[in-house]
Specification:
The protein has a single domain (3-160, 203-209), classed as Rossmann fold (3-Layer(aba) Sandwich), CATH 3.40.50.300. It has 7 helices and 7 strands. The chain has helices at residues 3-18, 36-49, 66-72, 86-98, 142-145, 161-174, 179-200, and strands at 24-29, 54-58, 104-110, 115-123, 129-134, 153-158, 206-209. The strands form 2 sheets. A 5-stranded parallel sheet has the order 2-5-1-6-7, with helices on one face. A hairpin with a 4-residue loop joins strand 3 and strand 4 (115-123). Helix 1 (3-18) crosses helix 2 and helix 6 packs across helix 7. The radius of gyration is 17 Å and the shape is globular.
Length: 212
């Protein structure tokens, strides 16, 4: 299914479920490299076509800082579930749900700086539909599964593991690593994280293919 068609389907489903609610949160989960960020941006544009305000609330904004990870000895695993402040993300989602009439700051991860920037985005009362986007939103573990009550619609974006592996290696090539280094980095962390999401996530309301 083409990206725009996928977005149109999800937006129609969200609007139908939302009724007259003031705030609606869609969870968009999936392994790294599957295309969640691209789909999220397309969803915001599609909501706009329906005259509905929407904003992205990325899980990546809750990466622990490199200094914290280095102190904990987990910097090499940055991107694994335990390298995120899951409770902080849940607290933000709770506030966004319970305070729809307020402007609320949202942290955003800056890939060039390799850190989260506090207050980099603002969710306004006009943003009725929120897209919570991240790898682990449906992960079947205590730190993450408690978020389920905050989501009005859950979506899992999937792709074959061989497709994900290729994309994850390509991502590291884009950061200037040589092919062997890129493969090693992907195999050491990104690919195990992707496999974890595929194996250990609970069933979503909707499952969408993110590539073949």
């Amino acid at each position: 299914m083409a990206l725009k068609d996928t977005a149109a389907r999800l937006v129609e489903a969200a609007i139908a479920r939302a009724g007259d609610s003031q705030r609606f949160i869609m969870a968009l989960a999936g392994p790294p490299g599957v295309g969640k960020s691209t789909l999220s941006e397309t969803l915001v544009a599609e909501f706009g076509r329906h005259d509905q305000g929407a904003a992205i609330v990325p899980m990546d904004g809750f990466h622990y800082d490199n200094a914290v990870l280095e102190t904990r000895g987990t910097l090499a695993r940055k991107g694994a579930p335990f390298t995120f402040d899951a409770d902080g993300y849940a607290a933000l989602l709770t506030r966004l749900r319970t305070e729809p009439d307020r402007d609320i700051a949202v942290p955003v991860f800056d890939r060039e700086l390799d850190l989260a920037r506090a207050g980099a985005s603002i969710v306004t009362p006009a943003d009725r539909f929120l897209i919570a986007e991240g790898n682990y939103l449906l992960l079947d573990s205590p730190a993450w599964i408690r978020m389920a009550r905050l989501f009005d619609l859950t979506v899992m974006l999937t792709a074959p593991m061989e497709v994900l592996s290729g994309r994850l290696i390509e991502r590291w090539l884009g950061f200037g690593l040589d092919p062997e280094q890129a493969r090693e980095r992907a195999l050491a962390n990104d690919i195990p994280n992707a496999e974890l999401v595929i194996r250990k996530s609970v069933k979503a309301d909707l499952e969408i293919s993110g590539g073949a």
